[in-house]
């Protein structure tokens, strides 16, 4: 899929195969992308449903009229599903992690308030930070031409992460103490894979023990220790290649 992607609330009841894209998405299409009549576009709800159309006209600075939207397709969820539990990094590195994980193909991100996280999401500040992560996933999904964007969950405690790990078909903690590399582990063909990425200060011994009880052993990526904002992206790429999703 090479046509630029734009997000709409719903693809139900397309009016005669024509759709007016306005608001922020229309402004991006007209004023930033500078799309013109005859160019192909994809409209999606970000949940797997999409339709391909052709630009009929660009009106003003924020209205794009799209025609030939007769068929709505649905992209099935890929298997196995990959979720990354991402400890909260400092500054904007959390958004960087979400952006790059979305680009490579992660299916879900769970923000994790690990005990050694310097950053803590509380009150309005936490809601604002979560909103930025979700907006980043949406924009990165569009940029990478996805039609099924990653789910970004509410921030989880360590106990909630342990419950998620216990339900997974394969669960792992990325940690330098792992004796086995992630690139060599046996993976399920379907179901849920959950990876835990710790904070800058590392996963605490108590958290490692809690996650081990839930069935998540430590695994390493390589000899170097990656930053928390890049480890999830690297690990997701390894899994996508090994499960055949990148075949």
- What letter string, H or E per element, gives the SSE order? EEHEEEEEHEHEHEEHEH
Q: Please provide the count of β strands.
A: 12
Query: Which spans have pLDDT < 50 for at least 5 consecutive residues?
Result: none
Report the structural category. Answer: alpha/beta
Biggest sheet layout:
6 strands, mixed
Distance between the termini: 16 Å
Number of helices: 6
Q: State the helicity in percent bands.
A: 25-40%
Strand content: 15-25%
Query: What's the Cα radius of gyration?
Result: 20 Å
Average pLDDT number: 94
What global shape is seen? elongated
Summarize the structure.
This protein is α/β, with parallel strands linked by helices.
Provide a descriptive summary of the structure in words:
It catalyses: uridine(1498) in 16S rRNA + S-adenosyl-L-methionine = N(3)-methyluridine(1498) in 16S rRNA + S-adenosyl-L-homocysteine + H(+). Residues 78-239 form the Ribosomal RNA small subunit methyltransferase E methyltransferase domain. Its EC number is 2.1.1.193. It holds the Pfam family Methyltrans_RNA. Residues 21-65 form the Ribosomal RNA small subunit methyltransferase E PUA-like domain. The radius of gyration is 20 Å and the shape is elongated. It starts with a strand and ends in a 5-residue tail after the last helix. Helix content is 31%, strand content 23%. Helix 2 (93-104) runs parallel beside helix 3 (123-143), helix 2 (93-104) packs parallel to helix 6 (228-242) and helix 4 packs parallel to helix 5 (205-213). It has helices spanning 23-32, 93-104, 123-143, 158-167, 205-213, 228-242, and strands at residues 5-7, 19-21, 40-44, 49-59, 63-67, 73-74, 81-87, 108-112, 151-152, 170-174, 192-197, 217-219. The longest helix is centred in the middle third of the chain and has 21 residues, at 123-143. The protein has 247 residues and is α/β, with parallel strands linked by helices. Strands 1, 2, 3, 4, 5 and 6 form a six-stranded mixed sheet that branches.
